[in-house]
Specification:
Blueprint (H helix, E strand, L loop, with lengths): L3 H18 L5 E6 L5 E8 L2 E7 L11 H9 L4 E6 L5 E3 L2 E5 H7 L13
Parallel strand pairs: 3-4, 4-6
Antiparallel strand pairs: 1-2, 2-3, 5-6
Length: about 120
């Protein structure tokens, strides 16, 4: 089993490949406030605007969504994606929570990052 940093690195590599193979140009960023609140990935472009948090956890805990909620409060146009090691797809506090495996399998150039997961 891979650890949290390796899982985050895997997601980064796959999003970077999606970005590079997608016709429309998107930017990929990291976000952190002065107080240390951070979001792993921010993707912005013609197909959408997403804040993405990756956790190596089998369960979604309310505290796990706090950084996404902070980002979405500052940037109301962003959609929140929480990727985790569990099996359930759900929407909590307006954040789409997805098994990381499902997200990676569905990641296809020229489509929205959340295209197959609208609940």
């Amino acid at each position: 089993m891979i650890d949290g940093h390796a899982l985050e690195g895997l997601v980064f590599q796959q999003i970077l490949a999606w970005k590079d193979y997608t016709i429309q140009k998107h930017s990929l960023h990291f976000w952190r406030t002065r107080s240390g609140v951070e979001v792993d990935f921010v993707v912005l472009g013609p197909l959408g605007f997403w804040a993405i948090e990756v956790k190596n956890s089998a369960h979604v805990h309310p505290a796990d969504l706090s950084s996404l909620k902070a980002f979405m409060s500052d940037y109301p146009g962003a959609a929140g994606l929480f990727l985790y090691r569990g099996k359930e797809r759900m929407r909590l506090k307006n954040v789409l929570c997805l098994p990381v495996e499902d997200f990676l399998k569905a990641l296809t150039p020229n489509t929205r990052l959340d295209h197959d997961f609208f609940l």
